[in-house]
Specification:
With about 190 residues, the chain is an alpha+beta fold. It is built from 8 helices and 6 strands, in the order H-E-H-H-E-H-E-H-H-H-H-E-E-E. Strands 1, 2, 3, 4, 5 and 6 form a 6-stranded mixed β-sheet that branches. The two termini are about 30 Å apart.
């Protein structure tokens, strides 16, 4: 990953993309109210791959519920079965979004421009946090947030063929941009 100064320059030259659709959010059942689902306060308190704890609010979404379940701690066996006894209760909430300023890390050209690659993006962040350092993805997230991006589209650590979405609620510009829980209709992505 490039230095912070070089990231700022590179991000200033990258064309943000427009995304609109529905993804899913997986939350502990006690945080499943419509307000909590899209508040980003859980990631603010605990941190995540693209935001350090206490830095800024972020809402983590996925386009694939199975991959999302592995990311929140539901182990899946080789046969595709969930080991539910080892995890708590999770609520799956569809979330509609419309975002005009998305940094798309699923595009290899964007990763090249930022001086990063898939390996760096999906590496564990825990070793950095244990040393009291920001992981490269957290540094990138902070710079993108400060520059006003509304979200980052990024490969999943658990399946790089699946893209996740990290939305920065503080950077949304309503009514053109939004993030809102949606009614459960039909098949979950």
């Amino acid at each position: 990953m490039k230095s912070i100064r070089a990231l700022k320059t590179a991000l200033g030259k990258i064309r943000a993309v427009f995304l609109e659709g529905t993804a899913v959010r997986l939350v502990d059942e006690k945080w499943a109210s419509p307000e909590d689902v899209v508040s980003g306060m859980g990631a603010f308190r605990k941190g995540g791959r693209y935001n350090a704890a206490g830095s800024f609010r972020a809402v983590y979404l996925t386009e694939d519920v199975r991959v999302g379940l592995t990311e929140v701690g539901f182990p899946i066996s080789m046969g595709g079965r969930f080991h539910l006894e080892s995890a708590g209760r999770v609520t799956v909430v569809p979330v509609r979004f419309r975002l005009k300023r998305v940094l798309d890390l699923c595009d290899y050209r964007v990763r090249i421009a930022l001086g990063t690659d898939l390996e760096e993006i999906v590496q564990p962040i825990e070793p950095y946090e244990a040393r009291g350092e920001g992981a490269p993805t957290q540094v990138l997230g902070r710079v993108a947030w400060r520059l006003g991006f509304s979200a980052i589209r990024c490969p999943s650590r658990h399946n790089i063929a699946v893209c996740n979405l990290v939305v920065f609620p503080d950077n949304l510009r309503p009514p053109e941009e939004y993030l809102k829980p949606a009614p459960l209709e039909g098949k979950i992505p």
